[in-house]
Amino acid sequence: MKKLFVIFILTALSTFSVTAQTSLPLQYFELAKKLITPTPKNDLVKVNTSSVNAPASSSTLIDFAKTMLGIPYRYATSNPKVGFDCSGFVSYVFNNLGFKVPRSSREFPSVGKETNLENAKVGDVLIFTGTNPRVRKVGHVAIIYSIDADGIKFIHSTSGKEHGVTITPFNDYYKSRFMKVVSII
């Protein structure tokens, strides 16, 4: 009976992982195929880390996130075929590269390692309030896209005028909403 249960679980996991691998839209499948390889035992998806160190992990994360630029905003969704809300986008990107993160923006403050903006790096997650900066509750998340002399830029799915996945500068509006930054990579 125990062996039958184990066989059932392995079959279910194998079926799930094959479905998960092929559920990427065609335009993202080629990039994902380069980044993700099946494990020999049970075909579960795992990140190919053989030639990737920490900086490459963040660049791989950003390269994958950039493939979704322009996908429309859609509340409570984490499906590139339909659209993303902010946390749906962030969780989709991290989960597809082998990092376990929450689906809800409200849960992001408790993951990873908290750091400050001065020590933030590309691939870290910015946590913001909702659209009203006076209400100091988590309402938005984004991934740091770049840090240079012009400041921080982040990639996120916004319900604002871009209404989809876009790259935005860390401007005064977002500075007023900023709550914290967490490092997951």
From TrEMBL:
Q: One GO MF term, please?
A: cysteine-type peptidase activity
In this chain the NlpC/P60 domain maps to 55-185
SUPFAM superfamilies, alphabetically?
Cysteine proteinases
- InterPro entries on file: NLP_P60_dom, Papain-like_cys_pep_sf, Peptidase_C40
What PROSITE patterns is this protein classified in? NLPC_P60 (PS51935)
Superkingdom, taxonomy of origin: Bacteria
Q: Does the keyword RNA-binding apply?
A: no
UniProt-listed Pfam families: NLPC_P60
Q: Signal peptide location in the record?
A: 1-20
Gene Ontology biological process? proteolysis
Indicate whether Protease appears among the record's keywords: yes
Alphabetized UniProt keyword annotations: Hydrolase, Protease, Signal, Thiol protease
Cite the PANTHER family for this sequence.
Answer: MUREIN DD-ENDOPEPTIDASE MEPH-RELATED (PTHR47053:SF1)
Please give the family membership noted in the entry.
Belongs to the peptidase C40 family.
| Name the record gives this protein | NlpC/P60 family protein
Organism, per UniProt? Answer: Pedobacter changchengzhani
